Amino acid sequence: xxxxxxxxxxxxxxxxxxxxxxxxxxxxxxxxxxxxxxxxxxxxxxxxxxxxxxxxxxxxxxxxxxxxxxxxxxxxxxxxxxxxxxxxxxxxxxxxxxxxxxxxxxxxxxxxxxxxxxxxxxxxxxxxxxxxxxxxxxxxxxxxxxxxxxxxxxxxxxxxxxxxxxxxxxxxxxxxxxxxxxxxxxxxxxxxxxxxxxxxxxxxxxxxxxxxxxxxxxxxxxxxxxxxxxxxxxxxxxxxxxxxxxxxxxxxxxxxxxxxxxxxxxxxxxxxxxxxxxxxxxxxxxxxxxxxxxxxxxxxxxxxxxxxxxxxxxxxxxxxxxxxxxxxxxxxxxxxxxxxxxxxxxxxxxxxxxxxxxxxxxxxxxxxxxxxxxxxxxxxxxxxxxxxxxxxxxxxxxxxxxxxxxxxxxxxxxxxxxxxxxxxxxxxxxxxxxxxxxxxxxxxxxxxxxxxxxxxxxxxxxxxxxxxxxxx
Amino acid sequence: xxxxxxxxxxxxxxxxxxxxxxxxxxxxxxxxxxxxxxxxxxxxxxxxxxxxxxxxxxxxxxxxxxxxxxxxxxxxxxxxxxxxxxxxxxxxxxxxxxxxxxxxxxxxxxxxxxxxxxxxxxxxxxxxxxxxxxxxxxxxxxxxxxxxxxxxxxxxxxxxxxxxxxxxxxxxxxxxxxxxxxxxxxxxxxxxxxxxxxxxxxxxxxxxxxxxxxxxxxxxxxxxxxxxxxxxxxxxxxxxxxxxxxxxxxxxxxxxxxxxxxxxxxxxxxxxxxxxxxxxxxxxxxxxxxxxxxxxxxxxxxxxxxxxxxxxxxxxxxxxxxxxxxxxxxxxxxxxxxxxxxxxxxxxxxxxxxxxxxxxxxxxxxxxxxxxxxxxxxxxxxxxxxxxxxxxxxxxxxxxxxxxxxxxxxxxxxxxxxxxxxxxxxxxxxxxxxxxxxxxxxxxxxxxxxxxxxxxxxxxxxxxxxxxxxxx
Lengths: 472, 472
Description:
- Two copies of one chain form a homodimer.
- By secondary structure, chain A is mainly α.
- Chain A has three domains: 53-208; 214-421, Methane Monooxygenase Hydroxylase, Chain G, domain 1 (Up-down Bundle), CATH 1.20.58; 424-472, no CATH class.
- Chain A has helices at residues 2-46, 49-64, 66-69, 71-77, 81-91, 96-125, 131-150, 154-159, 161-177, 184-208, 214-239, 258-262, 265-275, 290-311, 322-348, 357-374, 384-417, 424-439, 446-449, 451-469.
- At the A-B interface, helix 1, helix 2, helix 5, helix 7 and helix 9 of A face helix 1, helix 2, helix 5, helix 7 and helix 9 of B.
């Protein structure tokens, strides 16, 4: 009896512990699921186009799998229909440019390698049954070595890497298959046709169903990066002379996001590579000056580098004289505004306003700072150690101003190359300038007529003079 | 007669112009060929492993194409042998880690998706002939949407992107093929087997024929980047107060290569991702702390950012007093030496020398600079504008010193995590320190016993005090 009770107790305890273990497992699984769910929602929310892209892939795949469902289509292509499915899975990329690039690479490489493979097969089969496999093996080996090596050439790697891969693949398959199947020409034709069908399905779905343009993404990336720097510089003006405790939330949110700008080189270059494959769309023509965007992006990164160093002087607890504080604040907030104006000009594809008000303000501030530093105002700061951080900030700010000027120049160039539309004010000022030019009997090309360019040259020279005055 | 002569003249002139055109074409083709040849030689010379890699791809491809050459092998696998060739072409990558990662991804994804695809096929076929294609279509669509979306999760994208692609591909092919072929299980088995054979051929050739280890490349990249910064800082000490004309070749070669350091983020991360797949090899164990390399690389990039700003003050034509020039020169060349010592420690996998001589020198130099700046030595420079650039350089140098300290700390951590071997001197100093610890009856963990760590803490605190004295 006692034995039985004890046995029951044991059973119950095993059951309970099993239940607890299962409950724990379920709870952990639930937590994990919730976390995955949260992450998934975040990914979809950050960029809803990702969800649309997934649906588009599903759509394209379902379309090409119709080959298998309908008897007449299947009768035509047979097992080769498989290649259409493979092509869709492998070629369909997030942006139109990437999809087009991969599709064209795959199509052309399949065609070229197929033709060469057939040639190699005929050549080898003419030499007799013994030599054939040896010759084919040699061809495949040499072709693989040469093509793999060509993939290392930087230009090929950037644009035709996938094509080279498909070239090796197709050449090997076609020339080796020749050893075994007699209907090799028909096979190659079918394969090429199904690949073309798969690739064009991808391209059509990619372009006509909520297209994602790499060019547009690059355009936005460049504008956003400049805007981030602008936000930082505006924020810096306010925060520079606060102590850490003064600023309520520590670093204000505008000061974050610098590192994403610094690390944007690869993504900008990838997008530019894709954008080159894209046809004209929206405000972008076919040969939009994508390279100029890379130039602006590179200048922006340089500027971000300076600004990161400036960032180290935040909350430095320096008690600078009120006048200097004022000038430094106004300089950094003006360069912030100038940057944001440039970002807006890119984003809206309008010519940056001529005689940029903020750049003029920057000039005034720079001159003021120089005259103040020259005056005997500083004499009372006998201990130089108190002066150094302020001098450094001033010097770095002057550097940053030069960077802002460079970016403005590159944006002006872009606005000319890409025919940005003129804003109302700009058109008026251009008219005046054109009249002046006509009076001078000195016709200028676009970049010289452009009012902004004039201002830029003025601005730059004067700032540079101030800069040289600083002895830097 | 005249007609005939004119006709002949015309023929000759056509022949001549045709010949000239052909000659021009040939000449241009020759020039182009020469250029390609030069570029090819450069690519092979820059990294001879590229040539070896191409030969390895040829070898692996020839090995798997044996399937087609030998009747018994072909009888076993039939057309499925194609998948071995495809796998080799697609999976074989430059480094062992990348090849292993892709091979494992491909193998596991094919297995999982094949099994699921078979399941889907059975489930669908149980519902009858009419529902089957609809259900299969639905499965394929849902699976493609879900898998494509999962590819956007950053962790998945970094390590399992290729696996997800193969998952979509295999699931679609297996479940759709089920509609048409009856021997679907046999087909799936054969395909899996040939893919495994192809992938293992790649892995074996990749590991046993002149292996290229991504981990080793990462190791070298990180060490080289630190060395580049070290070279720059050494050069900066010499060049800083020269005018542009003084320095014979403009910027000396040591000052170049900064931008490659700044842009190395992506390549370092890619290499670290590959390295995680690699088995232990040479001095690297299986779970080598690759993440720590990324930390060092990130600190190196921060330091490079400061140094790029410093670079703007080269040849600034400032006439700093001799004493200050001397201290600044010695500070930058000492930090250069300290960086190069750290690079050497990583490259040779020895613990960085304890009580780093150059870091001690840096401390002395920093103290000297501070006391000099504090003295009334500067009073004679009534015009502050002459002082500013020097003050900025001094301030930036102090920043750089902090960066060097941070890098030294991270390298120390790495040397502990990865069990770097001790240098002779180091072992002696460790013994002394251990004795001290035993006397204190206060046993420390590795990082505290380490002599370098002690020095680092001393060094850092004292430099930081000096830094705070500077008011920065």
